[in-house]
Amino acid sequence: MINLLMPFVGWSGVLFCTLGYLLLSLKIIRADSLSFQLLNITGGLCLAVTAFNTQDLPNAVANILWMSIGLFALSRQFSRKQIGSEGRNG
Prior knowledge:
The chain has helices at residues 2-25, 34-53, 57-89. By secondary structure, the chain is mainly alpha-helical. The longest helix is centred in the C-terminal third of the chain and has 33 residues, at 57-89. It is elongated and about 50 Å long. The mean pLDDT is 92.
């Protein structure tokens, strides 16, 4: 069952990462948007899972780093919004 699912997961990862880059390049979304970060995080996760499945460790690590950058950027955005909203309420 896993062997049947892995190509779908891998192609989904390609689609998410490529779609994020396309939408960014067309200026439909911004680099600091939630949608761009979620596309990169999800795409990186899908590609890392398939790379681990095929024991392609350099590719897996590259995609974990890609995903981690998206998570880091997203966490910074949320912490800035929280700090901004606390400043207005205080």
